[in-house]
Amino acid sequence: MTPSANPLWEAAEAAGAVGGKPSGALGWRAAGVAIDSRTIRSGDLFIALKGPLHDGHDHVAAALAAGAAAAIVSRRPAGVADTAPLILVADTFAALEALGHAGRDRATAMIVAVTGSVGKTGTKEMLRLMLSAAGQTHASEGSFNNHWGVPLSLARLPPEARFGVFELGMNHAGELGPLSCQVRPQVALITNVEAVHLEFFASVATIVEAKAEIFLGMDAAGTAVLNRDNIHFARLAAAARERGVGRILSFGSGADAEARLTACVPSAKGSAIEAEILGRELHYHLGTPGRHLAVNSLGALLAVAAAGGDTQRCADTLARYQPPPGRGAVETLALGDGEAILIDDSYNASPAAVRAAIRVLSEMVPPRGGRRLMALGDMLELGEASAALHAGLAADLAQGGIDRVYCCGRMMVGLYEALPPALRGAYAEDSARLAPAVAADIRANDIITVKGSKAMLMPRVIAAIRALA
Asked: Helices then strands (H, E): number in the chain?
């Protein structure tokens, strides 16, 4: 998003929004909002949150020294001058939420919210890219999708923005509804509902109910955008209707979807896509491969249409789309007398996401002598079904034409043992031990995907592969 020429918050407005008492220098203007003193940019309003491990009050002096315009605090921090620009409040987290509410209340932007078991961050980034072609667009950074990321993103929403795009996440029931009520989306996109976070849910049906909480912040003027290919489409559509959402649009492969994928031709550099969106034929290129990403782009285009954007103009920007770090980025590495292709999908993992990664890899054709390789770490938060869900990937890997698989983690040993012997590359207890074994086996013309849950630290494997170049 292009920085605004206008201040984001003025001193009196911010103090009024959070119900705080100004102290020290007055009349300041803030160009941004931050909660991490290490990321302060000149002109930011710093909010000193207290967490289980760190207290932001210990870093107020550093934030001001780094150029913060002011700080919101619940007590006067040590080492801060009496003249320092502060807003004193009873609770800084409550102040963050209040500032987010105030940011949403004053906004004139069309607000789009995105959630889903898999693909929500990438889809949010597609929307950021596309809607920026239609007008000033603000979107939540990274995966700022939880109880502090959402109000922070709302507090950063410029009042003059035309579009706002917010990612909403959850791993427990009851978390998504309050976030939706803060964002109050006019358009809500659910990419899919899959078997993730089963450790915290009795069944996938309860995950569907939790994802449907996104409709709690909507009204009859809103539009729900749902994946018709997902087996839970009917339940989600019923939940939207029960909430009173006025319009339901669907995307997928079937003829009954308002956004329908008619052709998807993949390559290492992306996918050539043909689609029909609300009766309009579109041809565009998506800058990264994967049929699942092509389907998500249809959902994003439906959201664009519901938000008032031109679908063809916005679709043309997707040639520049690159996935966020660790979510399927493709890179070419010089290796010996040739090249190898690395697909960095190491940010997170679930059964559905791993199967999607297998499909992407299976559709890529290595040069002569090259192999399709996968390095996989444990998929976490799967509860009692974890062992079966890990081992169940063996058939997908074999049928997908994957030549060799490397595994690490307590649960991945089950997958490794279920693999046909010819597919077994190496197994290790953790990614640090697996990394050298993977790197030692890679040769020119190979294509390798690295994936695992975030806590498995699969970037260690990525680093070992990159070091070969």
From this structure: 16, 22
